[in-house]
């Protein structure tokens, strides 16, 4: 495993821990998109279904897959039960059925091979690329976010951005190249580009995060 993959995976895990800590410490899920969290759980469940029928995974991969599924489900539990009154569905209004539909269509039209596991894997790759849109849409509507939320989004975006040098490394070191995750990863990184810029120019300089509404 190369250093870029390692850093990406731990950045992803860090983003989840930051989010859980933000919810628990503030006793609130205000400012967080429930729809984005549901999409991420769908991503993990469809991508890691092989946990239930394959026992050839490394300890590292198995551990991370289980952590992602459990932590994502736990976040949804917190938002649905313990802190549900703090979430405003009138702000979290992005139409996720379009994201699900487009991801499903791309998975059916362009899988690496036509098998249930490969179609679901391809679906999860495309869905992950756009799963953050409901959260970014919420930020755009409210125009601001607390510092912990922005740290969560930065760590999540950094995770995907690190996969780009990971793919470059694998291409030259291993001769491996898979078009679907590369294109989806670039799309996801582009979606974060404005956020990265504002994060650098404001949060990194001690200013309040804000967007034009």
From TrEMBL:
The chain crosses the membrane at residues 62-80, 96-114, 120-139, 151-169, 175-200. Belongs to the ERD2 family. Pfam families: ER_lumen_recept (PF00810). It comes from the Eukaryota. GO terms for molecular function: HDEL sequence binding. It is a multi-pass membrane protein. GO terms for cellular component: endoplasmic reticulum membrane. Keywords: Endoplasmic reticulum, ER-Golgi transport, Membrane, Protein transport, Receptor, Transmembrane, Transmembrane helix, Transport. InterPro entries: ER_ret_rcpt (IPR000133). It is found in: Endoplasmic reticulum membrane. The keyword Endoplasmic reticulum applies. It comes from Penicilliopsis zonata CBS 506.65. GO terms for biological process: protein retention in ER lumen; protein transport; retrograde vesicle-mediated transport, Golgi to endoplasmic reticulum. Its main location: endoplasmic reticulum. This is ER lumen protein-retaining receptor.
């Amino acid at each position: 495993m190369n250093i870029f993959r390692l850093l990406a995976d731990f950045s992803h895990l860090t983003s989840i821990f930051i989010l859980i800590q933000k919810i628990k410490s503030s006793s609130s899920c205000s400012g967080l998109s429930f729809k984005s969290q549901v999409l991420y759980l769908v991503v993990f469940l469809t991508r890691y279904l092989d946990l239930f029928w394959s026992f050839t995974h490394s300890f590292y991969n198995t551990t991370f897959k289980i952590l992602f599924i459990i932590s994502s489900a736990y976040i949804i539990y917190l938002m649905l039960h313990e802190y549900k009154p703090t979430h405003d569905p009138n702000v979290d209004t992005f139409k996720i059925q379009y994201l699900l539909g487009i991801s499903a269509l791309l998975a059916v039209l362009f899988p690496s091979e036509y098998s249930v596991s490969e179609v679901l894997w391809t679906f999860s790759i495309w869905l992950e690329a756009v799963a953050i849109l409901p959260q970014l849409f919420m930020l755009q509507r409210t125009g601001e976010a607390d510092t912990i939320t922005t740290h969560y989004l930065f760590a999540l975006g950094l995770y995907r951005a690190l996969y780009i040098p990971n793919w470059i490394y694998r291409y030259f070191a291993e001769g491996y190249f898979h078009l679907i995750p590369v294109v989806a990863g670039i799309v996801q990184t582009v979606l974060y580009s404005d956020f990265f810029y504002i994060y650098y120019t404001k949060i990194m300089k001690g200013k309040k995060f804000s967007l034009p509404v």
